[in-house]
Design goal:
By secondary structure, the protein is an alpha+beta fold. The chain has 2 domains: 183 residues, no CATH class; 133 residues, Histidine kinase-like ATPase, C-terminal domain (Heat Shock Protein 90), CATH 3.30.565.10. The chain is 68% helix and 9% strand. It is built from 11 helices and 5 strands. A 5-stranded mixed beta sheet has the order 1-2-3-5-4. Helix 2 runs antiparallel to helix 3 and helix 4 packs antiparallel against helix 5.
């Protein structure tokens, strides 16, 4: 149960809290208020009263459930349930006053007044979640009018009216907060998606600038070499050698883009990560400084920060993130830790992390991911101070 709760987003947790508080109040109000006013009824009426209250409470619970959905826009307004609940409330009040028109001897009120308090609070609480505030307040005023008929001084009506209006306002404020939290959660996911899309667009622009320009030159050079070859000119060989040189340079530049070495340095990537995470509502704190690291490490660790940030935006519910840079003469370690583990499954390498692991391995380093109790995810990269260039690695 605890694991399931931790897997839910903050917005979902808040919604379940609001729903739980509404359901609990509607379900327990008849028991609490009934015990408070001590409904003293004849034995023959007791079974009828209990059956009425159980049916009335059940209808009000269903009304609350559908009403919250209608307020969020996920289901239509439960007009039928509103009418059924109102009808049961009216039947209970009329039956109570017909059976007990006078107060109980020795008490200021009677069973009819107690029944008014129980059914009116329960129904208005449910109605506040399903109808507009003016409708709920109008029903509350009508219940107060019934109280005036029983208590000529108006004291019961004033107390009941204050209670009912307070319930209506509390319910509507809670529902308004629920919608605001849901909208903020959706906006956060949209911002995260936009941040990832912006990063992809930037990468696409880099690829276009490097590969597109070079391929255009290769096409022109190849066409020129073909024309020269048709004429038997020796310059065709030189042009083809030039095509090969351009293609090799383009391949080197493309690898540099893929490996992230075109980034200025680690500090630039950290600043970009902080801006992207802030736009998604994630607080990012950086501990340590990598400005004095060699250029080869700057580029590799810049790619680590970029990949870790992208994964955090796409796959987590993080609220905070801490980036720690621990540099020594022998090695440097970068750790990215966030509090947004989305599920109870053990951490695993996705395609992005697999690519990152391969690139770091080419430099003689290691990549590890792990779950920290209770809901934290940590990405750690360890690199020697003098990277060992392996196959596929590109020096800075």
């Amino acid at each position: 149960m605890i694991g399931w709760w931790r897997r839910q987003s903050q917005a979902t947790r808040f919604e379940w809290y609001v729903r739980g508080s509404f359901y609990t109040q509607v379900a327990l109000s008849p028991l609490f208020l009934g015990g408070l006013v001590q409904l003293e009824v004849a034995p023959g009426h007791r079974f009828v009263l209990i059956a009425l209250l159980v049916l009335h409470t059940a209808v009000c619970l269903v009304l609350v459930h559908h009403g919250i959905g209608a307020y969020q826009g996920s289901r239509p307004r439960p007009t039928g349930l509103i009418l059924v609940g109102g009808g049961l409330t009216a039947v209970g009040l009329v039956a109570g006053y017909l059976a007990y028109p006078e107060p109980t001897p020795g008490h200021p009120d009677g069973p009819a007044a107690g029944l008014l308090l129980v059914v009116s609070v329960t129904y208005v609480s449910a109605l506040a979640a399903a109808a507009r505030p003016r409708t709920s307040i109008a029903v509350a005023v009508a219940c107060c009018g019934v109280g005036v008929l029983h208590d000529r001084t108006g004291g019961t009506a004033i107390a009941l009216g204050s209670l009912l209006i307070g319930v209506v306002l509390a319910y509507r404020v809670s529902l308004w907060m629920l919608v605001v939290v849901r909208e903020l959660d959706r906006a956060r996911h949209v911002q995260a998606g936009l941040a990832v899309a912006e990063e992809r667009l930037r990468f696409a622009r880099d690829m276009h600038d490097v590969v597109g320009r070079t391929l255009s030159v290769v096409a022109l050079k190849a066409e020129l070499a073909a024309q020269l070859a048709r004429r038997g000119r020796a310059e065709a060989v030189d042009e083809m050698l030039e095509v090969r040189r351009i293609a090799q340079d383009s391949l080197t530049e493309m690898r540099a883009v893929v490996l992230g070495y075109r980034a200025a340095d680690l500090d630039v990537e950290l600043a970009g990560a902080r801006a992207l995470l802030a736009s998604a509502g994630i607080e990012c704190r950086v501990i340590g400084d990598g400005s004095g690291l060699p250029a080869s490490l700057q580029g590799a660790l810049g790619w680590v920060v970029r990949e870790g940030t992208t994964n955090m935006l796409r796959h987590s519910e993080a609220r905070t993130c801490t980036v720690t840079i621990d540099a020594s003469p022998a090695a440097v370690t970068v750790t990215m830790c966030n509090d947004g583990v989305p599920s109870g499954a053990p951490p695993r390498f996705g395609s992005g992390l697999i690519g990152l692991k391969e690139r770091i391995a080419d430099l003689g380093g290691t990549v590890t991911v792990e779950r920290l109790t209770p809901d934290r995810f940590q990405l750690s990269v360890h690199l020697p101070a003098a990277p060992v260039l392996g196959e596929g690695a590109v020096p800075a």
